[in-house]
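Project outcomes to date are best conveyed with an example. Our students and postdoctoral researchers have been running inverse folding experiments weekly, and each run begins with a structure described purely in tokens. The record below, which covers 436 residues, was selected by the lab manager from last quarter's runs and is presented without edits.
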């Protein structure tokens, strides 16, 4: 049975969203452009949902009193079917429109596939028969609309009072409105850009939910993804179904693609008109060669942006309970790559004289030499040190020892790359120790 379409004014309307996960996030993202006041009720609320602007967050279980007011709309988006059904029954008894995720029979209304261009809203619903068909129709409607359609609607709205005043005859006025509309459509759109856009996105270091809200949004909008090793695979589930993916992982000693080939692929995809996400573990600009990619894009005239991520230099020690700075122990942190060109010689005399915390990345194979050279240049052998492998590494480990014995301790523990080396007073800390 088909559902009757309605368009509801949600500006400043109270909306109750019960649930705090990914599904609730997507419901909120659909509603927010229409201006409601959304209250989220859930014991646990995903960081991406909590980061959306203008939400009221209630970190607790649903209560019947949440329906007082009552809300203009209620969405039940929990993973508890019995709770969703209870919310549906309560709403129906009070004649409150309710949507229950993935349960058409319990819904008083459904979320359509939406096309929005300024003041234009098109809702598409197949009554649950085929969401794929709704998406198919949505894509074709979007393709039919000229790029200037939203601006044309604004100009037509501004014209309405004048025509109503000047043309009293209803039929004549309708003809004038039609003529004006056809003239607006005949205005040539601005030439389409010949190139797409590239976002250099840091995925953070570890679980998928460490990516930024901006990074996740770009991932969900992209048409092509170029990604590295050490990315949480669940991030790939966020891609649009038709997005192209290109694996070009880079690890010390195991380069799936040379840097020049990666640069060329980004330029090629952008010139083909793609919205490209270059997804990198950690932060693109912390020994991630994001700077080289940005320069290549700039030289090729490609529009790009950079979305920072949590660098492994901070995240991996933090995951092990080691802060890279700590009052009274370390007022500064130095991030150093141990992976240098053959003609380059690391300045261990300068490193040994530095205060605070030293963090070496990509240095596990050189750990023994790093420790020996630091001591040879004057760093005390009893300086605390740690070697940590975490995040999305296959073999997680955290080893602490004095600098003089850290290489042997890491070898005995079987630490495998990728690993972060920390040298300095904070390396002796384990802020989780009392809570595990």
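After processing, the design step wrote out the following sequence:
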């Amino acid at each position: 049975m088909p559902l009757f379409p309605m368009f509801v004014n949600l500006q400043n309307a109270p909306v109750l969203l019960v649930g705090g996960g990914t599904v609730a996030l997507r419901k909120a993202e659909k509603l927010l452009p229409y201006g409601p006041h959304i209250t989220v009720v859930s014991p646990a609320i995903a960081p991406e949902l909590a980061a959306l602007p203008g939400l009221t967050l209630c970190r607790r279980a649903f209560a019947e009193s949440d329906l007082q007011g009552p809300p203009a709309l209620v969405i039940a988006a929990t993973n508890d079917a019995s709770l969703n059904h209870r919310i549906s029954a309560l709403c129906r008894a009070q004649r409150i429109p309710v949507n229950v995720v993935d349960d058409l029979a319990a819904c008083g209304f459904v979320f359509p596939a939406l096309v929005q261009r300024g003041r234009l809203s098109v809702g598409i619903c197949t009554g649950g028969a085929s969401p794929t068909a709704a998406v198919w129709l949505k894509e074709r409607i979007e393709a039919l609309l000229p790029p200037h359609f939203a601006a044309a609607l604004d100009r037509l709205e501004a014209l309405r009072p004048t025509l109503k005043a000047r043309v009293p005859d209803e039929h004549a006025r309708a003809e004038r409105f039609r003529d004006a509309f056809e003239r607006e459509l005949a205005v040539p759109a601005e030439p389409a850009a010949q190139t797409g856009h590239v976002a250099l996105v840091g995925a953070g270091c570890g679980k998928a939910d460490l990516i930024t809200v901006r990074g996740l949004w770009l991932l969900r909008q992209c048409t092509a993804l170029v990604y590295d090793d050490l990315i949480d695979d669940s991030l790939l589930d966020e891609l649009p179904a038709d997005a192209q993916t290109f694996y070009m992982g880079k690890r010390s000693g195991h380069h799936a693609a040379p840097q020049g080939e990666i640069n060329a692929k980004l330029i090629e995809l952008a010139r083909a008109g793609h919205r490209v996400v270059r997804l990198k573990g950690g932060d693109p600009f912390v020994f991630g060669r994001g700077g080289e990619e940005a320069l290549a894009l700039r030289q090729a005239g490609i529009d790009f942006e950079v979305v920072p991520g949590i660098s492994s230099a901070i995240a991996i020690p933090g995951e092990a309970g080691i802060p890279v700075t700590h009052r009274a122990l370390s007022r500064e942190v130095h991030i150093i790559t141990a992976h240098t060109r053959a003609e380059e010689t690391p300045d261990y005399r300068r490193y040994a004289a530095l205060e605070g915390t030293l963090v070496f990345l990509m240095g596990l194979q050189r750990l023994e030499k790093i420790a020996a050279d630091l001591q040879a240049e004057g760093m005390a052998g009893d300086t605390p040190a740690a070697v940590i492998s975490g995040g999305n590494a296959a073999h997680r480990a955290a080893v602490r020892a004095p600098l003089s014995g850290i290489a042997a301790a890491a070898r005995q523990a079987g630490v495998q790359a990728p690993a972060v080396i920390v040298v300095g007073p904070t390396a002796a800390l384990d802020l989780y120790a009392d809570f595990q």
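The radius of gyration is 28 Å. The CA atoms of residues 332 and 355 lie 7 Å apart. The training component of this project remains on track.
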